Amino acid sequence: MKTYTYSEARQRLATLLDQARREGRVQIRRQDGSTFVLQPVVSDRSPLDVPGVRTRLRRGELVALVREERARSGERILKALSNRRLQLPRARPASKKPRRRRPRG
Questions:
Q1: 20 to each of 29, 45, 80, 94, how far by Cα in Å?
Q2: How far apart are alpha carbons 77 and 83 in whole angstroms?
Q3: Burial degree of 19 (CB within 10 A; 0-12, 13-18, 19+)
Q4: Within-domain flag for 17
Q5: What is the pTM of this model?
């Protein structure tokens, strides 16, 4: 586990946070010698664990709304991708050797 001084930790906080996420822990030592451990909090909840929403929609209506929104978002994604293709600069052909001009005469 890497140990940083307090000054280094202040200057590189983002780097320390990334390293703590990767390695699990990072130590920070103050000038008086006291040492602290920086470590990420492990979440025990799923990111998909969200509270329910009360609604008067029937199952079929909800399914139809979800399908409609998926179709719309898919169309937006395809449109964005096609627009992006049109805006991308075209690749330049490989440069050719300059032609030699024939002397006039």
A1: 15, 20, 37, 46
A2: 10
A3: middle
A4: yes
A5: 0.42
* pLDDT tens digits, one per residue of 27-67: 999 999 999 999 998 878 887 888 888 888 899 998 999 99
What are 3-30's pLDDT values in tens digits?
A: 999 999 999 999 999 999 999 999 999 9
> Greater confidence, 103 or 69?
69
Residue 102 lies in a domain: no
Distance from the Cα of residue 33 to its chain's centroid: 37
CA geometry: angle at 9 spanning 8 and 13, to 5°?
125
- Tally of domains within the chain: 2
- Residue 59, domain member (yes or no): yes
For residues 36 and 26, the answer to whether their CB atoms sit within 8 Å is no
What CATH number corresponds to the domain at position 24? 3.40.1620
Domain housing 27: 3-38
Does residue 76 lie within any of the structural domains?
A: yes
H-helix or E-strand containing 36? strand 35-38
